[in-house]
Design brief:
The protein is mainly beta. It contains one helix and five strands, in the order αβββββ. A five-stranded mixed barrel has the order 1-2-3-5-4. The longest helix is centred in the N-terminal third of the chain and has 16 residues. The chain is elongated and about 75 Å long.
């Protein structure tokens, strides 16, 4: 009986210490793990004006910023005018109509967005950064 109790206590201890729960992505995306790919957190963007586009015109949903956002990575500056939308925050754009349907620069930016801007981690040989946005809030501007 004593040996069985020690075995059960040991098993419970190892289950709690080596649980898979601690390796799950952060649901609020504070550590940039929520978007799957190895992303690095760049900065938080607040109330940026954007247009929205995506399927069926493009393979993924993304936002185009009214002004270019830039970041420094590997000692160089990378300006970008758009970012893909993280899969985990796609539900937040449901009900928002797409604002442009071509690759041309949009003429209106009817949405205001806040969220975490992430960038792809640098590769070994060639580094072409790719922005992704985890949306915390999106709203239509009247």
């Amino acid at each position: 009986m004593k040996r069985k109790m020690i075995s059960c206590a040991s098993a419970l201890f190892f289950l709690t210490v080596f649980s898979c729960e601690r390796d799950k992505p952060d649901p609020e995306c504070r550590d940039a793990s929520c978007c799957g790919y190895p992303w690095e957190y760049v900065r938080y963007i607040q109330d940026e004006l954007v247009s929205l586009t995506g399927p069926p015109y493009f393979p993924v949903y993304y936002v185009r910023f009214k002004k270019q956002l830039s970041t420094y990575a590997g000692g160089a500056e990378f300006p970008r005018g758009q970012a893909s939308i993280c899969q985990k925050s796609l539900y937040k754009i449901e009900g928002f109509p797409l604002t442009h349907k071509s690759k041309a620069t949009p003429d209106s930016f009817p949405y205001r967005v806040s969220g975490k801007l992430l960038i792809s981690e640098s590769g070994d040989i060639v580094y072409l950064p790719y922005f992704i946005l985890y949306i915390d809030k999106i709203e239509k501007i009247n």
